Amino acid sequence: MTPAAPSHPSRPSRHSDPAPRQPAAPDTTAVRREFERIHGRAPHGVWAAPGRVNLIGEHTDYNDGFALPMALPQRTVLAARRRADGLLRLHSAQGDGRTTQLRVAELAPGAVPGWARYPAGVVWALRERGLPVGGADLYLDSTVPTGAGLSSSAALECAVAVAYDELYGLGLERPELARVAQYAENAFAGVPCGVMDQMASVCSAEGHALHLDSRSLEVRQVPFDLTGHGLRLLVLDTRVQHDLADGAYAALRAGCERAAKLLGLGALRDLTEPELPAALAALPAELVPLVRHVVTENARVEQAVARLAAGEPEALGPVLTAGHASLRDDYRVSCPETDLAVDTAVAAGALGARMTGGGFGGSVIALVPAAAAPAVAAAVAEAFAAAGFAAPAVLEAVPSAGAGRLDRAGPGPVGGTRPGPSDQLPGAIS
What we know:
By secondary structure, the chain is an alpha+beta fold. The protein has helices spanning 28-39, 117-128, 152-167, 174-188, 196-203, 248-262, 276-281, 288-309, 316-331, 336-347, 373-387; strands spanning 45-54, 66-67, 69-82, 87-92, 100-103, 136-142, 208-213, 219-223, 231-237, 352-356, 363-369, 393-397, 404-405. It has two domains: 28-223 and 404-417, Ribosomal Protein S5, domain 2 (2-Layer Sandwich); 227-397, GHMP kinase, C-terminal domain (Alpha-Beta Plaits, 2-Layer Sandwich), CATH 3.30.70. The longest helix is centred in the last third of the chain and has 22 residues, at 288-309.
């Protein structure tokens, strides 16, 4: 798992505003100051990468399909300084107070335990590509909740990826950075995720959702103006922790790959809705619901993009709710807490709601009229209390910018560019 998240907001009352009570991102000045205290020198820069929510398109990315995520204001902030001695020194504000020290040349899958395997995995993945990267001092602080289905691991990986890209003058394009981070999570951390989380973290644009083709990595920025349409997107964290490295996620992916092979397809993305009935009839019973979910979920992504492109974000509601039903009944990755949050939110006035993320716990997103947001949040909290569940945490999802450097040009894309003449780092930095 990634470093533990900061404490969650308390349960909202019926008259409270459900907006997040934690800062959207750690303070850059404070991060620089802590870096100097821990590592004894000033960092060469400060970078950040966001968590994400996925509006629709769940478990489609590893099937070469489509997704519609957006970046969150909550993000992991990283101060970094290049080293010439091959040491990688890692310290997290959410850790146990100790600094992890590793030798870059000795990094290998399975050799780094705990949260440190995510940043170390990115350095290893860059070296696996033959890129000339070495050591660094890193200090991380994050406001992305962990285990909530908001891609805290991708935020951590992508912060390291964009920092290393600039520290070592690699000049990688955004999709390449996402692939590096995904490879780190797959091969080093042992989580067989698709690429959607990392693409959302590095490629998102403020005020937009990201229409992603997971096969080509082509993206389209789709305007998503919640405020202008009197809407809010709430994230209801059920506090049910999930760990995608525990085997259940891998089993789902393996089932999808088996089904594609039986159907003679490169991936389930190649199966269309009109072809679905015949395909399902040809598959073993245990694979039928997996395939039905993936094909119909790809179709829901296209429906959602069309409604946003038409300037009708409120029309997303039924698409979200239908997506949750598919995740619950076909993919079977929901749980009592996420189901209760969805049902209660819709009954209390949400236009639509669904589980977001890999499943087995995590968070629910609810699209709500702005005026109804406090009542929806309170209704979910009360339903959880009545059911004996832990009180959910609530934050607001605002379409935000992707990863970038904070202490020079502000947040925004840096991938695909090399430092300018005034920003060049010395060839050997100790």
